[in-house]
Amino acid sequence: MDADDSRAPKGSLRKFLEHLFGARKAIGVLTSGGDAQGMNAAVRAVVRMGIYVGAKVYFIYEGYQGMVDGGANIAEADWESVSSILQVGGTIIGSARCQAFRTREGRLKAACNLLQRGITNLCVIGGDGSLTGANLFRKEWSGLLEELARNGQIDKEAVQKYAYLNVVGMVGSIDNDFCGTDMTIGTDSALHRIIEVIDAIMTTAQSHQRTFVLEVMGRHCGYLALVSALACGADWVFLPESPPEQGWEEQMCVKLSENRARKKRLNIIIVAEGAIDTQNKPITSEKIKELVVTQLGYDTRVTILGHVQRGGTPSAFDRILASRMGVEAVIALLEATPDTPACVVSLNGNHAVRLPLMECVQMTQDVQKAMDERRFQDAVRLRGRSFAGNLNTYKRLAIKLPDDQIPKTNCNVAVINVGAPAAGMNAAVRSAVRVGIADGHRMLAIYDGFDGFAKGQIKEIGWTDVGGWTGQGGSILGTKRILPGKYLEEIATQMRTHSINALLIIGGFEAYLGLLELSAAREKHEEFCVPMVMVPATVSNNVPGSDFSIGADTALNTITDTCDRIKQSASGTKRRVFIIETMGGYCGYLANMGGLAAGADAAYIFEEPFDIRDLQSNVEHLTEKMKTTIQRGLVLRNESCSENYTTDFIYQLYSEEGKGVFDCRKNVLGHMQQGGAPSPFDRNFGTKISARAMEWITAKLKEARGRGKKFTTDDSVCVLGISKRNVIFQPVAELKQQTDFEHRIPKEQWWLKLRFLMKILAKYKASYNISDSGRLEHVQPWSL
């Protein structure tokens, strides 16, 4: 795709961006404030994208301190200097708190040091304090230059040549405490660390019937505490934005004892380090422990996770997020004019967007102000729709009202898993069951897919039956690829026998096909004239109507972890190329995104046809690479990308053509991509999207109550998914036109727009549609 933006000259991205650059040819990149996993991926993307468009890129070591000190702290980066850092946590260029930069004298020194290297473009990766400092620096820039000229440190020509400073920010913070972006770099990785610890603690807690109080980071923001509580099904959570009501001590103890009475052998309480009560007084983990021991006499332990949350390798999500933001930041710098305000590159849905930096900073400060003034509802609202949604979902799933307080609907809602297993399916079932019970429905579990449905393997499932399901991989209900077409009569009989009023299907492409078959059978079988909704759950991420599927993130992390180990092996032996086969059917999502997250040299996918010349070109590219200090290669291949260019064929071709330059190995990842404990993203996504599906079912049943209404319209058979920036219900009838049934993929897939990213970062010439890059938008508090 060549650049087709009206502002762009015809031709490649490189030419267009070189045209934009003009005389502005130097970019400085720094990391500041607290470190976060994924910062290195952002640094790598900035350096490589900058070099790709012909700019000089400089590392500024030790954050603003390095900028003030100058000298060896500001050094030019090359392509190889950011090799092998994608999988490394922290930041290789260092980060430091800098008092000197807070003074005008310090900023004057920093400006002088930048000008010595002609740097007038800054890419700052840090929190709101770091970004606010960068904006102040930008505002003062012309005044600083004039002062340097008066002092004789620069001439007047330099004042004109370097007249303005461009600043673009990326938020690196594990707390996810910056308004304007769905996720900050490092948050997902921190959740991985927290969930790993919670999963490990749960086994020991269960053995001894213990209560564990876990303290997680988040001095001013409860995001980590809230999402980890949602992802592990914690009994209680304490957040700075939403303090417990007065009398919480007694309520919590009642809740813990009720759970024990239901034969639950452990209790998990999660506390954000900045947790407070309604009077803004701190609630500490020790205070909670004392309360539980004194009131209930339970064996209670405190675990403070601390800096473990900042450490370790970045997750696949953080690597991809940081890479996308880094490339977008370079393009934003190149497009900037003297009138462009400092912007921050953010994530909205699955889109990279640019927002005015100070609008985001102001809103972030407004949250803290609301908490200080005890306007806690405003604080939750200002955090954004996602935070408020998480909080409401947690409350619905964690606290069960007594049965006599739940108005009964006399409706039976069935839940079924269909297709191959996907990590996160159990979290989705748990969520559906509990929301359904809270809404007054009787919940039925269908075991072993449509096969089990036809055989009558249907049982009522209760609130406590799904306790502890969130962290379990696979499918506890059992799942099969069998479609309902052959068993329509039997399934209709079971629907009638069990008086099923609505159906929730959790599964992959087979679930989608099954939903179409049930919908088509409505004319023959009136039992199917009930609300039916599907929640996508498949590692392949190939369901029409949704950009993401439950299970795909876990599979992506499995691929990324394996690739990291393989790259390490290749680095040790030198001159070795690995060919790795991923799952996905005809859908190249796992191969493409795995390649981006692991820093692969190529990824072969069905959606982008290739021939022997492309394979030859890749071999030549790897041959050239072996002449550098990076003497290893990584190539991913989607399992069905080509009928003839199989993994064996590519392995043999590479082995023959690379003879004497590199040797070759192959690895088929297979079903390990479907197994394992679900990632925090899949637990959270499965929980939230399934709760949303049940809300839709409840609304539909409410609509028909007392009227004996039959559901025959298309809008009563839907797929629920994330599309662009929204969670939407789409009728399956409408989705048929968007589906390639032969290859079991949607006709349009959003992630194909990221193909160029992997190619550029692997040093291939690639082009990019500039019209897909972000425009400066404004922050909408409730639509974040």
TrEMBL record:
InterPro entries: 6-Pfructokinase_euk, ATP_PFK, PFK_vert-type, Phosphofructokinase_CS, Phosphofructokinase_dom, PKF_sf. Substrate binds at residues 173-175, 210, 217-219, 273, 301, 307-310. Pathway: Carbohydrate degradation; glycolysis; D-glyceraldehyde 3-phosphate and glycerone phosphate from D-glucose: step 3/4. Its EC number is 2.7.1.11. Gene3D superfamilies: 3.40.50.450, Phosphofructokinase domain (3.40.50.460). ATP binds at residues 34, 97-98, 127-130. GO terms for biological process: fructose 6-phosphate metabolic process. It catalyses: beta-D-fructose 6-phosphate + ATP = beta-D-fructose 1,6-bisphosphate + ADP + H(+). It is found in: Cytoplasm. The active site is at 175 (proton acceptor). The keyword Membrane does not apply. This is ATP-dependent 6-phosphofructokinase. It comes from Macaca mulatta. The lineage of its organism: Eukaryota, Metazoa, Chordata, Craniata, Vertebrata.
